[in-house]
Amino acid sequence: MTERSNETLRKDACQTAGLTMSRSRIEAARNYSVVNLWDRLGFGAVKDGGLVRSPWREDATASLQVGGGKNIVFDHGTKESLDTIALVQKVRACGFVEAVGFIVNGDGPTEVPSLAPKSFAQRAVETARRQFAELKASGNLGIETGTEANGAAKSNKWTPDQALAALRGGHERLLASTEAMTLLTAYGLERRTIECAPLALQRDAVLYTDSLEDPTVIKSKSVRRGPDGKRAGWFAYGNPALWWPCGKPRAGAEIVLTGGEEKCLLCIQEGIAACTTLNGEGTVDSEWAREIAALGPDRVTIWMDNDQTGRDSSEKWAAALWLAGVRDVRIIQWA
Asked: Is residue 111 part of a domain?
């Protein structure tokens, strides 16, 4: 395995994703008058520091302040603060790159669409609606949605009570299952690692969760592999998120972003802080990149599979992390 320099990675990743944006353009977008931007976004003219009703919630007292000292929009009711770029992202449901392009260049994006700016649910719904419209127009209503829409449809299948019931005693069942333990140890995981991980067994599937007692997310993956050699997986409870099986690391720690839960646990087994995306390598979300960047890591190393999906995802994650503020990002490449 080799590592490319950070500067080479940054250029390659940004070129791959079509992100050719200078810091000066970002600063220009951040310094753009939020009062003028508010008007451009269709909310109407407002004086600097003026109070208006929030367009995102019930607001009888006009508690949203536009400008006034700081070049931000501040909601006195929810304490949410938005700079110009974040404001455009919220209003237009777009990503960082598109937001900067909108502010600097005028109406409409002039750069590539963002990597994955919207929430999983938003993207799934929009994908499904677009495909339905296309199929309806063509007269073919045999709807076949994409993997994101399918994943979202399965999300939250269990109720909270059902989720707790599935996990109850599941960790002990996992440790007692020869088949499940053989599967996990084949990845290189030691029993001590599995004993400490938030994993459970329910029928013929391993459950990956953030907490065995108070879960917010559960992903289910079959113990046995299908004819294609892959394990079937779906979201049993909660929404896709970054998985930190041992909690988030201390500020400034080096983090490894892996493609797969077992890779993540292998890193932790070696004493390395790690996280993974529970909905597979193909999804790159700028919100998750900002979640990692907020920890102030010294370095983020990306470890995905050595296939086209893994390579594409690595480049996109690198660009997303760079734009989120991580300045030392590396991709593990397989020789």
From this structure: no
